[in-house]
Design a protein that fits this description.
Elements (H helix, E strand, L loop, with lengths): L7 E5 L8 H14 L4 E6 L4 H7 L1 H5 L9 H4 L1 H5 L11 E4 L2 E4 L5 H16 L3 H7 L1 H13 L3 E6 L5 H9 L2 E6 L3 H26 L16 E10 L1 E2 L2 E2 L1 H22 L2 H4 L9 E3 L3 H9 L15 H28 L1
Parallel strand pairs: 1-5, 1-6, 2-4, 2-5, 6-7, 7-10
Antiparallel strand pairs: 3-4, 8-9
Length: 336
């Protein structure tokens, strides 16, 4: 039974690398699946970190294959000869209620195509709309045929054209941040750029769409839901002093540059005050989850940990913190 009336798309986005975006997206998706939401991970990062985390050895063996299930195979016709997406290619099952559309090193070929396609779309050329909406149309059809509740999108840490396209058709986005100066600087830099993306699309491709089918017209505005503080360190059950100082600076920057520009009305006054969740640095558990293809909170306590109690405490904490993240995100998605 579907949890949402319509399928929803949630992207985790930060153009600053190293903020734990992929790890958070994967663990959040596992939580949604465990709570009965039919969830599909979509790896749109040419680095393919999400696919490695979810599939590891199976993905490595097919890394350079032109035949394995991947986003490249889905887009093959679009990229090579102007055919449509492959709706017959389905996501790879992982665990109950969770599957993945694997990434591909060849996704950069689609991004090369977008350079021309995006310009054509903003000039009212129908082929541009057809090509830029390819991933959106694939997911829309998959949502209908497979009763998907939630698509969790992992995109690369940059401001290139593929990310612009994704951010123009995603329903919502959540922003992971580190408690440091770079995150505060990033907030202002990125969301000025995002405002320009939306304005450009609204004033050109969106308004000039004419007789183009609705499913080929990008919606032009992903909604900012909230932000997450990730990988803080603590001492005596409190964030360490330097992290606390930066954590105190982030809310006002979020308010000024993101909430006031990219939220729907009822979120403007709340989405900046505090993060959806504070995610601690879980030490070696994050790396081990990549080795064993499991969520951090689903890891089995390994005997070779130097400090078993500390490790188990981190595992339990990760479970409660990602549960908190699930509760907070799901409540927002059910409201809108």
């Amino acid at each position: 039974m579907k949890k949402f009336i319509r399928s929803k798309t949630l992207s985790f986005f930060n153009n600053k690398g190293g903020v734990g975006k992929t790890t958070i997206a994967y663990n959040a998706a596992v939580k949604f699946a465990q709570h009965g939401y039919k969830t599909v991970l979509v790896d749109l990062d040419p680095q393919c970190n999400m696919s490695r985390l979810a599939l590891w050895s199976a993905f490595e063996q097919s890394l350079f294959s032109d035949e394995s299930t991947s986003i490249y195979q889905i887009l093959y016709g679009i990229i090579n000869w102007g055919a449509d997406v492959r709706h017959d290619i389905k996501p790879i099952p992982l665990v109950q209620n969770l599957s993945i559309v694997p990434g591909s090193l060849q996704l950069s070929m689609y991004e090369d195509l977008l350079i021309t396609a995006y310009g054509q779309a903003t000039s009212w050329a129908t082929i541009g709309y057809f090509q830029t909406s390819a991933i959106q149309r694939y997911l829309k059809e998959l949502a209908l045929t497979d009763d998907v509740d939630l698509f969790v999108i992992d995109i690369s840490p940059n401001l290139w054209l593929l990310n612009r396209i994704v951010m123009l058709w995603t329903d919502y986005f959540v922003t992971p941040l580190m408690p440091d100066a770079f995150s505060v600087q990033w907030i202002e830099n990125l969301w000025t750029t995002y405002a320009d993306w939306k304005r450009n699309r609204k004033n050109t491709g969106q308004t000039l769409a004419g007789q183009v089918p609705n499913e080929q017209v990008l919606r032009w505005e992903g909604i900012f839901l909230w932000y997450i503080i990730n990988s803080y360190n603590q001492y005596a059950q409190q964030p360490i002093r330097s992290h606390k100082e930066w954590m105190n600076k982030i809310p006002q920057s979020i308010k000024k540059h993101i909430s006031s520009r990219h939220c729907i009305n009822w979120l403007v006054e709340t989405s900046w005050k505090e993060p959806l969740v504070l995610l601690k640095d879980y030490g070696e558990l994050s790396a081990d989850s990549q080795i064993h293809n499991k969520a951090i909170f689903d890891l089995i306590p390994w005997k070779d940990y130097k400090n078993v109690k500390w490790t188990n405490d981190n595992k339990e904490l990760s479970d409660s913190q990602f549960e908190e993240l699930f509760v907070n995100i799901s409540s927002l998605l059910h409201k809108y």
